[in-house]
Amino acid sequence: MEIIIEHRVTWLCSQVNKNDRLLDVGTAENPVWYEYTNIVTVDIDPKVQPDIIADAEQLPIGDKRFDVVCLGEILEHLQTQKALQEAKRIAKKSVLMSVPNEYLWPITLKPFQNPGHVRFYMVETFEEEMKKVGFKNLYMYQCDYHGWSWFVAKGETKEM
Asked: Quick check: helix, strand or coil at residue 128?
């Protein structure tokens, strides 16, 4: 797995064309996509004012409705792989994912202390989970930035 020295948000944004129709699942309160206008947000929490209030594991959206679906910092909060399968179902072109690699965080960043994290990823578990979904092509990286570390991936849902 290649290591990229940049923030995960920088990497995520570099994977989307400005004219892509984008569905962002679970990060409505995070300004990842502030430069994008063709975006719909989904979150289970109505307080963050998403466009759609829904569970990431059961999205009320038809098949292949968005060019790109982003699951940024959500998979570590879920018990199953269902959100990843839902994202693949909805995406015409690709699914973008990022999860924390807390095993590499320094103690000052308080790894393993977020009570909402129910899963923790090592490179092997991240790769295994991504491959189970059956993307046409899968690109996986580790992003390291100022002590923080994440695994990021782009899974293509059609031949590019």
From this structure: helix
Pairing of strands 52-53, 137-145: unpaired
- Tally of CB atoms within 10 A around 141: 18
Find out whether 130 and 155 touch, Cβ atoms under 8 Å.
yes
- Rounded CA-CA distance 101/133 in Å is 20
* Rg of the chain (C-alpha set): 15
Please tell me the distance from the alpha carbon of residue 39 to that of residue 17, in angstroms, as a whole number. Answer: 12
pTM of the model as a whole: 0.92
Tokens of 69: 């679906």
Domains of the chain: 2-156 (3.40.50.150)
Distance of CA 62 to the CA centre of its chain: 19
Taken in order 150, 130, 57, 85, is the CA torsion positive or negative?
A: positive
Q: Which residues pair with residue 43 across a beta bridge? A: 53
pLDDT, mean of residues 69-86 = 91
Q: Tell which wins on pLDDT, 26 or 36.
A: 26
